[in-house]
Amino acid sequence: MVATYLLPVQTALLLFPIVVLVVMLPVAVVSYRRRGRAGGWANVIFYAFLFYLLAAVMQTIMPLPRNPEWYCATQNYASTPQLRPFYFIEVIEQRARGRWTPGAMLRNPALWSTALNVVLLAPLGFFLRYMAKTRFVAAIAIGFGTSLLFELTQLTGLWFVYPCAYRLFSVDDLILNTTGAAIGWLIAGPLTRWLPNLEPDRDRKRYAGRVTPSRRVFAFLADAIGFATLTAFVLGIMTLFGGSPQGPVIVILAGVWFLLIPTLTGATPGKRAMLLRIERTNGHRAGPISLAVRYGILLSPLWLLWIALSVDNWDIFANPEQLLIPAGAVISLLIVGIWTPLAVFFGDESAPYERLPGQSTSRSCEKGRAIRSPDEVAVMGPTRRGVGGLDHWCHSDLHATGRYGGGVGHESDAIRADHWPGDGPDRAQAAQRLRPCRDCPACACGVRRGGAVL
Prior knowledge:
Blueprint: H1 2-35, H2 41-61, H3 68-74, H4 87-96, H5 102-106, H6 109-120, H7 122-130, H8 136-155, H9 157-160, H10 171-191, H11 200-207, H12 213-240, H13 246-265, H14 269-273, E1 276-280, H15 288-298, H16 300-310, H17 324-346, H18 352-355, E2 359-363, E3 378-380, E4 392-395, H19 396-400, H20 426-432, E5 434-436
Antiparallel strand pairs: 1-2, 3-4, 4-5
């Protein structure tokens, strides 16, 4: 019996790495946008919850019948749903056979099955309260809906994958699973005091302004997967309708994704998902030529490989210009494969594909949201947009003490007193204690030209 219950857990352990690879990028996007980081206790607990869900699903559908036709022809115990509420009590009494000693109860398989049905969704109720702050009634409704989904999966033979039901649909399972979800929700209340705080504000104030190597990697992966998906879709449509050659189409799509969109918006779709932007070292938005140099260097291994594969006949003696391809590959390997990882992961300098065109990657703003905290002193000057804009002032004392890594991107222009909202004698004094800044770490994000401040 123990092996039967361990098999779903073992299967979940084998499948979990694959599931993590599938959801890792979307989870990182959401985490960076909410918290400013992809690590920490919040992600650890989320992946623990993900493993629990996977194990619960495996517990519901396994073990699978090896020969469905033979099984459905010879076994019919699950063909009729069990609709008698609290029938499990009668089953426990039948299996006990009048023996109610602790040892006999531990050997009662019906009691173990009942207990496991309660435990199955207890973690769901716990996570709903701890992670999602779900109320009691909503948690019970979600627990009941999850249990009903599991039972219908069993009743339909894994949603008609199998010709018959190989697990019994039981109304008792609905009762016990929902009870377990309620118990888990109740247990989460007192335990939350000793568990890590999952509120995003603390992480966001500390990490939102950082451009970390992992953030760059996730942005690059988002661009690579997004561009590959778009290219596959467009080429598939063209193949379906008998379109033109694929090479020029790929070049046009690459120009749109890596040149046109960043020129107009300041970031590629992948960088925008990670709240990053590309700008020149003087703070201005990067232009198309600068972007072409940037991505020409960064993507040089790919286009050099493309050129090498397009050569039909390699003959360096008859065509010595072909030597430029391996020479470029060596230079590309040094810049992209060695220099860039060393600069990004182990150094504080810009990556070479940013340094050569005079660019930098910085934290971007998410329009329409604002961060406020008790120890933050920030005032936005009035603008026609009504949300915030170019007039962005920060308390100079916070930066003078280095509390927020002061000095980063601060301008030395004197503030004009008439920029301070309101009237009164304190306006001039307040103006002396405030100064304009860009990319202010105290506000977790910098000025977004013509937009809002995060």
